[in-house]
## 1
Amino acid sequence: MAKSFKSEFVKFYKEKLEPYGFKKVKGPQPYFARLVNGEIVHIITYRGSRTNTPGYKSFELNCGIASIYRKRIRFNVTPDSNSYCLICNTTMEELKDHYYRIFIKKRKFYDFEYTEETMQNALEKSLIEAKFIIEQLDKYTDMESTLEFFMKHNGGFTVTFSDLLSDSFSDEEGLYYVINDESVNIDNIIMCMKLDAELIEDEYWKEDSRKDLYEFEENLKIRRQKFQADEEQYNEGMKILQQRKEDNLKMLKEYKVI
């Protein structure tokens, strides 16, 4: 019987990730997750990648962060279907110290080729990158630091501020950050992003980043002020966050993460 890469991945990383607090998420999908400080969920998985080597397949490690205030943490879909909430290890390597790709340089792809006979060897090679991912995830342990991760690695998608009470996007954290701006220094993160944007060498992308940041900052301030000025809306938002917290913690128990 042919080996399944997914089952080999799960078997290999179940042992390797356990000392770091990661547990295999219950179910058929190859997710590993851990809950940090009761609020932050760190996720590690993999996705298939392209290869030009005849007879070989390839994979790359992926990771992500969610919070228990998200409308829905999705472990019931494949990593491919969850791709906009995940980043590959190559991207994390490029952006570990910056919000933008500052310098134009040749990317080093950290994907791993394998055949049925060399799966184990490819998994062993990937362990170095897995440890790097964990080292980076260790930096994001509360809602304030996690906002930095979202802005750095997800392009702000997970902190959009449209339809805050309904969150048309199930994988976003905007409601939390609108309500809790006093305990989360959003202004400091935006300032760091502005300083980072000035380091971009390409003038077109530098100017484009300046415009995007200005629009994001203005949009955030206006929405935050309107939301917090409306007592009924604000109280409804607090109820929603509490319900999400309860629902997500229950879900994490069902998935055997906690």
Note: The first strand starts at residue 23 and ends at 24.
## 2
Amino acid sequence: MTFNPNELILERIRSVEEYDPATNELVGRYTQIEEPSLKTSAEAQDVTDAMGSTVATFYKAQKGTFDFSNSYFSLDLAASQYGTEKVLASEDNKIIMPVSETITIASDHTAVLKYVPVGTAGAEVKYVKVINENNTFGDTYEVSATAGDGKFTIDAATKTITLPEGVSGRVFVNYERETTNAAQVTKKTDRTPKIKTLLIHAIFHDICNANIVYAGVIRCPRAQIDPSSTEVALSPDGKHAASYILQKDYCDEDGSLFDIIISED
């Protein structure tokens, strides 16, 4: 008998996959999907008579949107939203990372950094601030090739800062370091999200027998993340939301926005 489903229970969207439409290469996959929503819209154009009565209404500029929130912050999704790529550090491609430290000054007036600082030789750290006993900032010291009043010296190789005699307590230091174990996503103002092909994988159940499970896929040939408003919640309970604009391929006569495919096997 021909498989002819109608009313089904949609259990959940189990994943959203992004593909490069030119190469069909997988470029992003998100598995913690919340509040997914698929919408379509069109612009109405009324045809009226001399009295202003509507004779007919035609619809044009049909498009769709697909929205969801990922339960976790996703670097891949952020890269897709910003129209860039996630960069992975390596021995041949080190990433420069800012570091801020609060260090206890030793009895010999030195403070040892956690990492080797990078930057202008002899001035890898430009300024440091002493922290007072009441946790406020005290005097500021500037790097110098030689010790002196209001100055400090730095030996980047040994990660050591030497402050003038008499300086004690704690010091706040900001600097940059190289790392081979990091990932970086950069938002640039001259880039917009690339057009992707989406596969939205869903799980359905038969309404008469919930033990019967069907696999479903919503295929969106041309989807582009809406860059007009992108928000990343910077909190543990925040969600990573995304909104895709679905449009037909201008050069495709078929002009489909998406397909909903449900399989019995």
Note: The chain has a mean pLDDT of 93.
## 3
Amino acid sequence: MKEKKKRKVLIGLIIGGVVGAAAISVLLIVFGYYFLYGGPAQITNDAKLYEETMHKYRSEVVGKVRTGFVSFPESIPESAFMNGSEPEFYFYYRDTWDDPTCEVLLKCKYSDADYSSELDRLKDGIELKGADRKIETSLEYEESKRFSYPVYKAIDCDDYAYEYAMDLGNNEIAYIYTSFKDDFKSLKKIPEDYLPTDFESCRSNYLSGKDGYSVYIVEKTSDHVSYEYGDRFD
């Protein structure tokens, strides 16, 4: 009897150990998944929530996105909602390890007046505010075969990111932001013809030491990169 009891206790301990080890393994896998990939993506696609969404990810939590969204409008004019269809808005955010993975698309068709005003804004100088200083700068204009349409760039292949406004003509402007999106297939909403032809080579260029462009970088040395974000959407 004593031998049977010992055997049962031993079997119970073995089973308990196996179950415990399996549970720990599952917990480690879940923890590793959330650590590396940040869990499920957070997605917003309602243009009426544009300002609220941009404020949430730009201002409320430091490091949510690594941009000031200066190429994007602070708000969507009423005329963009009065052309038979609402503006197209898509905001994808996933808190992946080290830096977030993000995809943002805003496409608006404006009235003549609002379209002209928005182009003026994109051409004008902008003020960026850092912890101890302010700088006056402007978006970089590019009209080349790299892009299907003229663009006003805030970020061009810098730190695995792009940000720019694209003048589609006919009173339409598309605003693009991507971060840690490596190829066309990884994008959910941004059309391929809204991206530069060398989009997929951004990561390899950055890893090989080729500097991209960022309006937010006001100091770049071998030791650090200093980002100066505008205090928009506050």
Note: The two ends are 75 Å apart (CA to CA).
## 4
Amino acid sequence: MSRRIRETQKIFKVFCEGSTEHHYIDEMRRQKKLTITLKLVNMEGGGYRNFLEQVKTDGTTNCLAKFIIIDGDRAIAEEGEKKNLRELLDYCILQNKSGRIPHFLIVNCPDFEYIACLHTPKYKGQNVAQYLTKELGYKSVEAFKANTKVYHALNTNGNSYEHMISLLKEENCFVVNKYSINKKLYEIKVSTTCYWEKLERKSSNINEFFEVVTGFNA
């Protein structure tokens, strides 16, 4: 009797900078049974350059795509970090042009806390720190960041990432990744464009992450 050939599972690799994003995506991965490997990047002492180094050195075996999820506030506040962000962006663009493993650079402006607030219908542009404490009931922003059940909190009782995505506007995004998916060939092609004049706008292209990982596993 012939031996059954074991099919190798293809995965998405997600690089994120904060524990909040890590907790959120990890719980989402479990609930939706997504093929995701999470990489938490330490930003201390290197900022966006730490992302670049880790993304460069991380392996690509059985990898469908890499998602690099960062906050834009560092580049807004520090000129040196803007240079580091440019290097990270240029690297992702180069990888996508090469046709090898696609790299999705996801930039939340100013940060993931703002994106979290967009999950809730009551958020109408209020101060993020005040909204997290007064409306969502956290003792502080730090307490929100430490919540290991953040995905559950932001996706129950009328809150949802679908609502968040509905509020995002592509015309405000600093980075836009146009992509096509061939599920039969396990192939994703990406073309990345950035708009530096939009860096300080409140925006995000994190919808691309949700669309790709949930769509591919549908």
Note: The first helix runs from residue 19 to 32.
